[in-house]
Amino acid sequence: MDGAVFKDLGHCGIGVVIRNDKGQLMGAMSKRFPFPLGALEVEAKAAECGVIFAWELGLKKIILEGDSKVVMHSVADSHPAPLSIRYANGVSDCTILARYANVICDCTIWVEDTPPIIASQIEIDVVSLGSCPV
After folding, report:
1. What is the value of pTM for the model shown?
2. 83 Cβ contact list (under 8 Å, min separation 6)
3. Cα 38 off chain centre by
4. Which long-range contacts (CB under 8 A, 24 or more apart) does 72-78 make?
5. What's the distance, CA 83 to chain centroid?
6. What pLDDT, on the 0 to 100 scale, is given for residue 133?
7. DSSP the chain
8. What is the dihedral of CA 121, 26, 45, 81, to 10 degrees?
9. For residue 124, what are the contacts with CB-CB under 8 A and spacing of at least 6?
10. Which end of the chain has fewer surrounding CB within 10 Å, N or C?
11. How far from the centroid of its chain's Cα atoms is residue 101's Cα?
12. How many Å apart are CA 96 and CA 30, to the nearest integer?
């Protein structure tokens, strides 16, 4: 998951990508919030939405991955298993979806379907894991 702040426009967005243990896409979400949040707040909101989305997909044992050490440590300290936390830095498919939230009105969700704007990245990731393509 990742967040983006569109300070000049007064809103923010999040991107969430849910994969199985083979790297295959299970669901994705791009969501816009019509109010400004700070960088840490939008990262925390992305974490919250990511966990809720995973649970709505029926996934109970999840690994939450984000690029904010502060948020990841905070979530790890306040949530018991089966929620695992992993810190990952860099531009990802979630970052792209968070930025995509700037051009949508509310929320776009893909379930068992790959968002076109990250399709090539998902395929590269799956192939690099040695799994079959999506």
Report:
1. 0.83
2. 51, 62, 64, 75
3. 17
4. 72/47, 74/44, 75/44, 75/47
5. 15
6. 47
7. -EEEEEGGGTEEEEEEEEE-TTS-EEEEEEEEESS---HHHHHHHHHHHHHHHHHHTT--SEEEEES-HHHHHHHHHH--TTEEEEE--S--HHHHHHHHGGGSSSEEEEESS--GGGHHHHHHHHHHTTPPP-
8. -120
9. none
10. C
11. 12
12. 9
Cα separation, 94 vs 98, whole angstroms? 6
- Residue 85: how many CA atoms within 13 Å on its side-chain side? 19
Rounded Cα gap, residues 9 and 67, in angstroms: 23
Tell me the mean pLDDT per 10 residues along the chain, length 134: 93 93 88 92 92 91 84 74 69 88 95 89 73 48
Give Cβ neighbours of residue 56 (< 8 Å, ≥ 6 apart). none
pLDDT of residue 63: 86
